Amino acid sequence: MPATTTFLRTTAFAVLFPAAALAQSDVPEADRFETERGAIAVETLVTGLSHPWAVEDMGDGGLLVTERPGRLRIFRDGQLSEPVEGVPEVAARGQGGLLDVALSKDFADSRILFLSYSKPGDGGAGTAIMRARLSDDGGRLEEAEDIFQMNRFTNSGHHFGSRIVVADDGTLFFTIGERGEGERAQDPGDHAGSVLRINADGTIPEDNPHADGSDGWQPEIWSIGHRNPQGADIDPETGTFYAVEHGAKGGDELNIPEAGKNYGWPEISYGVHYSGAKIGQGTAAEGYEQPLHYWDPSIAPGGMAVYRGDQFPEWDGDILVTALKFQLLVRLDVDPETGNVTGEERLLENRYGRMRDVKVASDGSVLIVTDEDDGRLLRLTRNGENTD
Fold it and tell me: What are the respective helix, strand and coil percentages of the chain, to the nearest 5?
């Protein structure tokens, strides 16, 4: 297991300020920034989004964007579509609503996608996963069905988790927060506070750690002891699965969730309660995994992506994490030999708003959405170069 690292607020980092606007005929006007590893340009592709939560590259020039009130849209050729029809009814309160969107590995042929959302129902609301086919014209969802819903709904509007990652074998990893009730994260019979894994049709993979429901575990659960993981990704080169989660007052974590392991919340944490009181047993205890990296004070991590692409070869293998609290993008240096986090650079602080999701596009550019009333879709490129 790579060594745990932390970077305090006083750790050296780059705060970036725009140098000069770039005007090119084939790209929107871009703000230019200097970083530790060269210049980047940030283009605002869309404004006026209502609390966008996720962005996904369709691979054909289109970008899917979710809005938390319950809308799915497509950005293509400089235009934002009307809402796609057939999106499920969502419980759009607190942190809930329409959340992540992810594509099946054969999306180019099948048009199958997956949505996570807070589903209203008996007892309140809970995280659910829908599978649907996007119509050929992109205007509606067809053959839509829920393939998963968590086993206990509550009236809380907090900690739905909901990030989806589709693995190379077609299985879905996804996250659920503990819904604001910490003890639920230590109950393997409760879907809350866990990372889960299912097949694309909602059935249980045979190699899940408790696929038969043994030892009181729900068969979908991959790992437990998570507070509110809202970011996850699989490194396309190494196959390593990462997840980031919110701590309380301090103690945000980057983990490598492994099958059947317990990541400690609320028994161990590098943060404290908002009252200042100690959490559980402290920072470590037998039977609980340590994070790969943690933040104190909290940055409030949203989405994350492992960078593999041509536009920023100097970032190869590094981890990008969006931050809501400090309104920035974090780049973590990852040692390719050990897998340890060896450094941190903070980009775009307080320039564009609360950064919610980050994805690496097929052309190597970086896509970000900002979680605001007037939310944006941003694209980071090398010096404003459009490689479409």
Answer: 5, 45, 55
Contact, 153 vs 124, CB < 8 A? yes
d(CA 330, CA 304): 9
Residue in 51, 158, 159, 210 annotated catalytic: 159
- Is the pTM of the predicted complex or chain greater than 0.90? yes
Closest C-alpha to 223, from 203, 242, 237, 236: 242
Identify the CA nearest to 90 among candidates 120, 61, 124: 120
Low-confidence ranges of the chain (pLDDT < 70): 1, 3-28, 384-388
Locus of tokens 């994490």: 321
Tell me which amino acid residue 216 is. G
Q: What is the pLDDT of residues 50-73, one digit of tens each?
A: 999 999 999 999 999 999 999 999
Alpha-carbon span 301 to 322, nearest angstrom: 6
Radius of gyration of the chain (CA): 20
**Domains of the chain (ranges plus CATH)?**
5-381 (2.120.10.30)
Angle (CA) 246-248-254 rounded to 5° is 35
CB-based contacts of 48, cutoff 8 Å, min separation 6: 374, 375
Report helix, strand or coil for 361. Answer: coil
Question: Who contacts 176 (Cβ-Cβ below 8 Å, separation ≥6)?
Answer: 127, 150, 160, 161, 162, 191, 192, 193, 194, 196
Q: What is the C-alpha separation between 97 and 78, in angstroms, rounded? A: 26
**Token output for 127:** 């995280």
Tens of pLDDT, residue by residue over 161-213, are 999 999 999 999 999 999 999 999 999 999 999 999 999 999 999 999 999 99
158 is an active site residue: no
| Euclidean distance between CA atoms 360 and 116, whole angstroms | 20
Torsional class of 38: left (φ above 0), alpha (ψ -120 to 50), beta (otherwise): left
SS3 (DSSP) at 315: helix
